[in-house]
Structures are given as C-alpha cells and as structure tokens.
Design brief:
This protein has 220 residues and is α/β, with parallel strands linked by helices. Helix 4 crosses helix 5, helix 6 runs parallel beside helix 8 and helix 8 packs parallel to helix 9. The radius of gyration is 20 Å and the shape is globular. The protein has an eight-stranded parallel barrel, surrounded by six helices. It contains eleven helices and eight strands. Bound molecules: erythose-4-phosphate (E4P). The site of erythose-4-phosphate has 11 residues, from helix 7.
C-alpha cells in the first residue's frame, strides 16, 4: 500500500521522505492556506517545491468548476512537473474533464468522493486515483472504512485500474483498516503515519536490551 502525506508543509513532507516511506503527496486549497500559501504564483511555486522533495505523485487541485476552465487549469498544472497529478472535484464537469485528461495521458485524482456511485463514475472516466474521504464520513456518523470496502469490491468485480486513495485518514487505525481491505493508497497527516511506529512493548523491550548490553559491557 502506498503512503501519501496530506499536507503542504514542506518540513513534514521532508521528514516523511527521509523516513523512506513516502510514496507521494496530496494537497488541497485548505492545506495550502493553512501554510500561508496564497495567490496563484505562490501556489504554483509551492507545487514545484513539493515536487523537488518527493519522487512520488503530487496532487495539485484545480480551483475551476466548469469543464473548459478545469481543462485549462489542469493542463497548466500538469506542465509544471511530470509527477503532478491533476486533482479534480467530483462534479459533472469534473468527470468530463477527467475523461479528457485520461485521453491525453494526464494523471488525475478525483477528489471529494463520498459514495460508491461517485467512485464508480470516476473509474469509468479513467481517473488514476479516486479519493474517498474516510474521516469526513466518520465525522457525520457514516462508516468511512465501509466505503473503502465497497469501492474495493466494485473495482475488483470489473477490473478497474483506478487506484483507491483513501483520503481524510486521521489516525493509525484508519491506515491499518485500509491496508486490511486492500486500499491502494492512503493519505493522511504525518502524525497518523508516525503513530504506526509506536508500541509501549517496543519501548520497554529496547530499554531492556540496551540496559542488558550495558551490564555486559561494564563486566568486560
Ligand atoms: C484529500 O486529498 C484531502 O486533501 C484530505 O485527505 C482531506 O482530509 P481532511 O478531512 O482531514 O481535511
């Protein structure tokens, strides 16, 4: 399963990359704003900076919501770097644009997906990735992980190559549940990925090993 980090924070992207487990980056306009990156030129430069750090796919989200504008904005984003994936919202014009980008060999990530039917449409349009938002569904008392399971079943039934990118992942259990189901990718904050490292028995076990080694060294 691929690990993407869901942030526009360059330090966190570097940290995940240096850990050796980073397969890509997802961003969205809110994550850019959170880092104080505003205005077209700054956002474009920020995408370039992210592409310099990771050697995986980098999702860059269009702001446009009509077909012609999504196509124009997406083409410009795709030209920035070979690893840019054009992130397109799940709306009618977005699906049409994904179909167009697919025909041109441009990678896409269909975002803001909250149902299996939406994921099916994205797959039919040829999206490279489809992003069901697990955490935001959980937030409204709907089982986000169940959606990943449903989409996995549907895609496997028909052999769709669209990758399931479980988004809005909030904590390590989401990551484990996605891995058990067979999600192709998860994207979440560094905190959720780093939390996978943690187990109290690892900490106490390591402390014991080091203490016993030291005892032996003191005797020698
Ligand atoms: C998806 O690509 C989005 O950027 C993201 O995962 C949304 O997560 P949130 O619900 O934690 O904002």
């Amino acid at each position: 399963m691929k690990f993407f980090i869901d942030t526009a924070n360059l330090a966190q992207i570097k940290e995940a990359h240096e850990m050796g487990v980073l397969d890509g980056v997802t961003t969205n306009p809110s994550l850019m704003a959170k880092e104080g990156i505003t205005g077209h030129d700054n956002i474009i430069n920020h995408y370039k900076a992210i592409c310099e750090i990771t050697d995986g796919d980098v999702s860059a989200e269009v702001i446009a919501t009509t077909y012609d504008e999504i196509v124009a904005e997406g083409l410009a984003l795709a030209k920035l770097h070979e690893r840019i994936v054009v992130k397109v919202p799940m709306i009618k014009d977005g699906i049409k644009a994904i179909k167009y980008f697919t025909s041109k060999g441009i990678k896409t990530n269909c975002t803001l997906v909250f149902s299996a039917g939406q994921a099916l449409l994205a797959a039919k349009a040829g999206a490279t990735y489809v992003s069901p938002f697990v955490g935001r569904l959980d937030d409204v008392s709907t089982d986000g992980i169940q959606l990943i399971e449903d989409i996995r079943l549907i895609f496997d039934n028909y052999g769709y190559e669209t990758q399931i990118l479980a988004a809005s992942v909030r904590h390590p259990m989401h990551i484990i549940q996605c891995a058990k189901i067979g999600s192709d990718v998860i994207t979440g904050p560094l905190s959720a990925i780093a939390a996978l490292l943690k187990h109290p028995l690892t900490d106490t076990g390591l402390a014991q090993f080091l203490a016993d080694y030291q005892k032996g060294a003191n005797k020698a």
